[in-house]
């Protein structure tokens, strides 16, 4: 009997700890009493991981619709489907240079790519409640309506991807750095001429080379024998070399490395324009 009495007293004390006193119920607002009671019964809510499969999106009508006739107004239009769905034509008319993202997406349902896996169709509003602050929902493929004439009996929901904005920022920063690095590197130009080149043509080639060097470009000049034509003698070949090096010096450029070959044969010059102008 003592054990039974002790058990009853224990249960009574436990209920008193869980349930508010009648006087407290009168003093406290109803919302506070209910919230206290719920916390006492259930305890703190555990942190919830994002899961689309275990927690299916609620099947609700859009806000303000309370009847089936209200729902039909979205499908009974000239397009033949809910106008909230975004097609490629809608994107083109929007004036944006990209598809919609985050709360710009008006499609009621979408397919979602998260960490490479695709799920759906899911409620767009439901998905937006599951993404973190550092994430963004990006549409990568718009909605395609059903068209039996095109052998497409069912619609294709828009495909959206959850993007990590921090990772995206880092990728863009790296691309900008790569562009800066490549822009800073001098571009290499190539010129070809023969030892027996005429004075007028040589002047044109030297002017062209000077233009490259003044812009800070690297220039490779190949001088070779003329095929099937008059061959220049040693003196003419050395004159071409002298003119070329004189032009390099006048433009403040330099030979990046020693030339290969010899006058009269095949000779290649490696020139580098003055940078920092």
Automatic annotation (TrEMBL):
Recall the GO molecular function terms of this protein's record: ribosome binding; translation initiation factor activity
**Presence of keyword Protease:** no
Q: Which cellular component, as a GO term, is one annotated location?
A: mitochondrion
Give the residue ranges for region: Disordered. Answer: 47-106, 248-277
Biased region (Basic and acidic residues) positions are: 93-106, 248-257
Q: Spell out the Polar residues composition-biased ranges.
A: 62-74
Family classification: Belongs to the IF-3 family.
What is the protein name stated in its UniProt record?
Answer: Translation initiation factor 3 C-terminal domain-containing protein
The organism's lineage?
Answer: Eukaryota, Fungi, Dikarya, Ascomycota, Pezizomycotina
């Amino acid at each position: 009997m003592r054990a039974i009495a002790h058990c009853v007293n224990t249960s009574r004390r436990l209920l008193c700890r869980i349930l508010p006193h009648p006087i407290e119920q009168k003093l406290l607002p109803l919302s506070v009493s209910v919230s206290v009671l719920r916390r006492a019964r259930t305890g703190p809510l555990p942190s919830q991981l994002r899961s689309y499969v275990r927690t299916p999106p609620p099947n609700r009508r859009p806000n303000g619709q309370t009847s089936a006739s209200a729902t039909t107004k979205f499908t009974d239009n000239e397009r033949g489907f809910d106008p909230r769905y975004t097609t490629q034509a809608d994107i083109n008319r929007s004036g944006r240079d990209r598809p919609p993202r985050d709360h710009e997406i008006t499609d009621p349902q979408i397919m979602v790519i998260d960490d490479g896996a695709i799920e759906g169709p899911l409620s767009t509003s439901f998905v937006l409640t599951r993404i973190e602050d550092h994430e963004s929902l990006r549409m990568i493929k718009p909605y395609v309506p059903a068209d039996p004439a095109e052998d497409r009996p069912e619609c294709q929901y828009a495909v959206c991807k959850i993007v990590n904005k921090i990772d995206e920022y880092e990728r863009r920063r790296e691309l900008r750095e790569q562009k800066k690095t490549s822009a800073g590197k001098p571009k290499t130009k190539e010129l070809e001429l023969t030892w027996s080149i005429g004075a007028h043509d040589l002047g044109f080639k030297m002017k062209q080379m000077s233009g490259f060097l003044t812009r800070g470009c690297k220039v490779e000049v190949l001088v070779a024998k003329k095929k099937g034509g008059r061959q220049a003698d040693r003196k003419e070949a050395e004159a071409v070399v002298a003119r070329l090096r004189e032009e390099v010096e006048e433009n403040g450029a330099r030979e990046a490395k020693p030339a290969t070959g010899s006058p009269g044969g095949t000779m290649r010059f490696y020139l580098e324009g003055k940078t920092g102008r």
